[in-house]
Amino acid sequence: MNHQTTEYPDDDYELPDERNLHRQGKRFQKKLVRSQMDEPPGKVAMFDPVTQLGKETEFKPTFSASRLERAWILEYLGPFYEDHYIADVLRQVKGGKEATVYCCRADARIGVELLAAKVYRPKIFRTLKNDAEYRRGRVVLDEEGFVVRDRRAQLAMQKKTPYGQQLLHAAWLETEYKMLRRLYAAGADVPQPIAQGNNTILMEYLGDATIPAPTLNTIELSRDQARELFDRVIHNAELMLRHDCVHADLSAFNILYWDGDIRIIDLPQAVDPCVNPKAFQMFERDLARVCQYFARYGIAANPRQLARAMWRRNVKRDTSEVFLAS
Known about the structure:
The protein is α+β, with helices and mostly antiparallel strands.
């Protein structure tokens, strides 16, 4: 599978494919494990990753992280440095239970100054509630983008064994990356996806090197700005629906704002309205949250009416059945 890339000025330069990124990430991971093998069980080795990981760690991030986070950055972002996507890691933008986002200086060949690297935490599924509701009807993809068809693998996912959790985790990442590619190509206000691999999505960064774009819920707008942004967010919700995507967690907390521009973020839980039986309820909930936020600026809207009208215009499923179930 070819990943979304920026055009390069050097025609002789080729970006590596995602499978190669994945293999390089595995090499980093094995070296990290080997460096800690002499430690007693349950203890984390106190080591210098730059020294012990060998010459592949010419990557020396500026970001002053703890020893453990430095190892984390080297493991997951090192392959992107080696393959000339990023030149440095400048700061942590956002840390959470599901993922950590870093502001990275892009390699000169990329054509932009900064990129965002979203690194998922391996324990993501311990923090997600009702994740099965979002996965209903979804095709499960492995970490290289191929459909998981093996019966034993599917059983492992149903039982949520360690192997099954690993597959589900990979599918979660792959879903977000594919959704970003589809929506960006359609003209939606989502970050441009640059590359994916090794537990990480590299994408467009909004903000500057010292201040990341804040989320919409943290800023104050004028009434005119609010009206314009409300129309823009509703337009994006319908555009996404037209391209078989319901965000399923849309709110002012997942919309970045910078100098009049917006980006809708965090799409791993996004669902296909044509296959997920609860997609309409999720879509209506998204619009209800958006309308609730903009109501503080005196913008009155009926989310149920909006949801029904947009659904009828864009989704081929039997609308009577959907509305009766909602």
